[in-house]
Amino acid sequence: MNNINTNYSFKTIDDAINYLIKYNHLTNYFINNKEDTFRALRNITMPYDLSYEYYELQDNLLQNQLSKKIITKQNNFPEGISLWLGDITTLEVDTIVNACNNQLLGCFTPLHNCIDNAIHSWAGLQVRRDLIKVMKEQNHLEETGQAKITKGYNLPSQYILHTVGPIVSNEVTKQNEKDLESCYLSCLNLCEKHQLTSIAFCSISTGIYGYPIEKASKVAIKAVKTYFILNPNSKIKKVIFNVFSKRDYDIYYNNLK
Ligand code: ADP
User: Are 237 and 82 in contact (CB under 8 A)?
Assistant: First the structure.
């Protein structure tokens, strides 16, 4: 597969699109515009053996897009706990947290608006490639409340922690609460293990997984605060609660007071 013949010079977004169309054995693929088409193709691709040239071109294209975005750096945050409203893929911290599903390979729905899709899309296909290896080695679905680490590749953040949040069906159960708390603790423990000092949590499970944000934010805040009480010598200096809407910001703000 990685011997796809690229007779043309391999430099433009059209080249990347054509490469992924062939790689996926498609004849045609187009959604909205070239950027969306390239993103959607990344979303559906299983990167078993993409060529070095593909990754090089993809990284150039993603870095070019990144250079047009406003990046928020970790120096903007004080030590301790902060609240920040914005797109997590524009944060430059040691690690961001991704809310993923138990297959751990990112969202395959083209252009879907979940955080898993955004993070994989802007980081690049290396993340899915690395997680395929992790899943092969582990040989079972990722358990709820656990977390795995990958590099951030084309994101401003160095690393991504991928954690599986609980799915809430009707009422929030004690087990849901325990599992959500476990997501936060697993990520903080991974941070400690890899000597990362700044972490931005998204609001895990509060989107498609249906955990009401009023309750989830309380669990998140309590888990993080308790962690630092129990670990006074922690090397983690900055914890950012990242929200994606003004409504969610207000809820966290009130619960943090
Ligand atoms: P889950 O399946 O865990 O519910 P979702 O992706 O549906 O995951 O949503 C988790 C949270 O992430 C939601 O609060 C959603 O608003 C938020 N979110 C979605 N996209 C982004 C993004 N690009 N940056 C930060 N937060 C995001």
Answer: no
